[in-house]
C-alpha cells in the first residue's frame, strides 16, 4: 500500500518539486523492472501491529490485528476527500523514507492513533493514544488488544 501511495503521489505531482534525499543502501528499493523502482516508506510517528500479529477481539475470537490496521489505513485513504500529500522527513535505521501522510487536510498517522488502529511511536501522538484507550476505540475495545508491535517483533525474531 505504501508503494502504491508513493507511485500515486508521483504521478499526480509530476510537475511538482520533490526534495531530494539519499539512502545508504538499496534495501528500501524494490526493482520493478529495468527502468522502474518502488520505494518503501514508513508513516512517521506511529507503529501498527505486524501483519501476522494476533489479538483477541472477543473471548473466543482471535483476529489478525495487523491486517485489520492495514485495511483501516486503506479505508482512510479511500474515504477522505482530497489529494494525498507525502512529506518526507527523514530516513529510518532500516533505510525506509519516513513520511507524514496527509489526505486533504487530514493527518493520516494521527487519525490512525485517534481511531485506535495504531500506537503512538514514542510520544508523537501520546495524547491521542491515551484518549483512544480511554474511549475503547479500535483495538482498545477488544477483549485482548495487541501487544506493542516492538515487543511482538522482539519475541518473534527469527
Summarize the helices and strands and which ones pair or pack.
Elements: H1 2-12, E1 29-33, E2 36-39, E3 41-43, E4 46-47, E5 54-58, E6 61-64, H2 65-79, E7 84-91, E8 97-103, E9 106-107, H3 108-114, E10 119-120, H4 126-134, H5 149-155
Parallel strand pairs: 3-8
Antiparallel strand pairs: 1-2, 4-10, 5-6, 7-8, 8-9
Could you describe the 3D structure shown?
There is one protein chain. With 158 residues, the protein is α+β, with helices and mostly antiparallel strands. Helix content is 31%, strand content 27%. The strands form 4 sheets. Strands 3, 7, 8 and 9 form a 4-stranded mixed β-sheet that branches. A two-stranded antiparallel ribbon has the order 1-2. A two-stranded antiparallel ribbon has the order 4-10. A hairpin with a 5-residue loop joins β7 (84-91) and β8. The longest helix has 15 residues, at 65-79. The radius of gyration is 17 Å and the shape is globular. It starts with a helix and ends with a helix. The relative contact order is 0.19. The model is unreliable at 1-15 (pLDDT under 50).
Descriptive keywords:
158 residues; alpha+beta; four-stranded mixed beta sheet; 5 helices; 10 strands; globular; disordered N terminus
SSE pattern, N- to C-terminal: HEEEEEEHEEEHEHH
Total DSSP E strands: 10
Portion in helices? 25-40%
What would you call the structural class?
alpha+beta
> What general outline do the C-alpha atoms trace?
globular
Q: Separation of termini?
A: 25 Å
What percentage of the residues does DSSP assign to strands (E)? 25-35%
Described by strand count, sense and barrel closure, the largest sheet is: 4 strands, mixed
| Radius of gyration, CA atoms, in whole angstroms | 17 Å
Mean pLDDT: 87
Amino acid at each position: 500500500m505504501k508503494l502504491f501511495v508513493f507511485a500515486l503521489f508521483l504521478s499526480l505531482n509530476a510537475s511538482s518539486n520533490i526534495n531530494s534525499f539519499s539512502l545508504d543502501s538499496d534495501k528500501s528499493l524494490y526493482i520493478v523492472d529495468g527502468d522502474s523502482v518502488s520505494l518503501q516508506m514508513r508513516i512517521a510517528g506511529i507503529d501498527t501491529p505486524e501483519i501476522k500479529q494476533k489479538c483477541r477481539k472477543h473471548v473466543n475470537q482471535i483476529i489478525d490485528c495487523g491486517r485489520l490496521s492495514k485495511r483501516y489505513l486503506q479505508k482512510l485513504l479511500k474515504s477522505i476527500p482530497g489529494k494525498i500529500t507525502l512529506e518526507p522527513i527523514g530516513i529510518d535505521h532500516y533505510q525506509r523514507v519516513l513520511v507524514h501522510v496527509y489526505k486533504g487536510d487530514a493527518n493520516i498517522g494521527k487519525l490512525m492513533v485517534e481511531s485506535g488502529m495504531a500506537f503512538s511511536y514514542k510520544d508523537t501522538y501520546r495524547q491521542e493514544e491515551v484518549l483512544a484507550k480511554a474511549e475503547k476505540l479500535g483495538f482498545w475495545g477488544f477483549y485482548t488488544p495487541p501487544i506493542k508491535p516492538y515487543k511482538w517483533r522482539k519475541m518473534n525474531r527469527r
